[in-house]
């Protein structure tokens, strides 16, 4: 069964929204505190171009950790699988997204996967280009192509706010540098990473990105292969095993689709072969995932039989 109308979707949003008051807006990046905790919006985008939305889909969100899927795709393209996975692992951690613990206990010292902050910083380091600006433009360009929206840019206030407060991420970088996983100036890497995390779009843009991933990297309109299918497959696999951090196992059982969350409250979903999902609900649970967004996906998975398992 598939969603037949925006009204039908709105009923699910109304139900899921009730859980927003149990969550909390992210505050460790000061600029994110301004978000409206009660907001919940969603878009579904299908390969034939049809789309259903509910909630205020004009509201913008920053990608935050959702950007890690895109940077992984670029690094895999730039460097190949062997290079990337010699430096970043492929296993879930069971730890919070910004944990430093396993970097020390894991031998050789490399981040366990590209979806945690340590792994994502190592991946962003791998993106080719002669300057931060050039590397950032490459990330932005791919996001614009995937979403079919050339006006997407980044929110400077959010980027600056994170840059000023990113001392834990700086610590991760210095640890990675000490162990030879990265070899660039840490401030430069944090500059690029905080800009990538602050790329700003709406649910509709996000659902179109999800649709391209769902269709193995091919733009359903132009038929252009925007991401090689082998790379899209790796990205979706990480979304299943690590996309919702240390809630990924429970999410796989309860929802069962490749998805990636961000602390802004965004969730990118790709229902393989069917459609893309973009969600924005800034109230987070204790693991940093959108509380109402998770609930909404659970309701949708039950109603539309979305689980791939
Ligand atoms: O590096 C950070 O902490 C943020 N820019 C992104 C973290 C994030 O989105 C984790 N998601 N749930």
TrEMBL record:
Reaction equations catalysed: L-glutamine + H2O = L-glutamate + NH4(+)
Binding positions (substrate): 65, 117, 162, 169, 193, 245, 263
Pfam family membership, one: Glutaminase
Alphabetic keyword roster: Acetylation, Hydrolase
GO function terms (MF aspect): glutaminase activity
EC class name: hydrolase
GO biological process: glutamate biosynthetic process; L-glutamine catabolic process
Enzyme Commission numbers on file: 3.5.1.2
Quaternary structure annotation from Swiss-Prot or TrEMBL: Homotetramer.
Family: Belongs to the glutaminase family.
Full protein name: Glutaminase
């Amino acid at each position: 069964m598939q969603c037949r109308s925006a009204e039908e979707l709105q009923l699910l949003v109304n139900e899921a929204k009730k859980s927003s008051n149990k969550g909390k807006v992210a505050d460790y990046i000061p600029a994110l505190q301004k978000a409206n905790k009660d907001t919940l919006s969603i878009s579904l985008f299908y390969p034939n171009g049809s789309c259903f939305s509910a909630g205020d889909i004009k509201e913008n969100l920053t990608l935050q950790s959702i950007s890690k899927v895109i940077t992984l795709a670029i690094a895999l393209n730039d460097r190949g699988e062997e290079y990337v996975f010699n430096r970043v692992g492929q296993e879930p951690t069971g730890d919070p997204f910004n944990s430093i613990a396993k970097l020390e206990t894991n031998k050789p010292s490399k981040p366990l996967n590209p979806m945690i902050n340590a792994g994502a910083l190592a991946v962003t380091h791998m993106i080719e280009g002669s300057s931060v600006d050039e590397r950032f433009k490459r990330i932005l360009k791919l996001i614009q192509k995937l979403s079919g929206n050339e006006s997407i840019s980044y929110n400077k206030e959010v980027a600056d706010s994170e840059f000023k407060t990113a001392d834990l991420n700086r610590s991760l970088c210095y640890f990675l540098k000490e162990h030879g996983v990265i070899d660039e100036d840490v401030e430069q890497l944090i500059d690029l990473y905080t800009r990538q995390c602050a790329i700003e779009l709406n649910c509709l843009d996000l659902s179109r990105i999800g649709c391209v991933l769902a269709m193995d990297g091919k733009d359903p309109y132009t038929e252009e292969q925007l991401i090689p299918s082998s790379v899209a497959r790796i990205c979706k696999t990480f979304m299943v095993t690590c996309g919702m951090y240390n809630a990924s196992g429970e999410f796989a059982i309860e929802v069962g689709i490749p998805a990636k969350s961000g602390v802004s409250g965004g969730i990118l979903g790709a229902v393989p072969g069917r459609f893309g999902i973009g969600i924005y609900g800034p109230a987070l649970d204790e693991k940093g995932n959108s509380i109402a967004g998770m609930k909404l996906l659970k309701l949708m998975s039950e109603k539309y039989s979305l689980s791939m398992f």
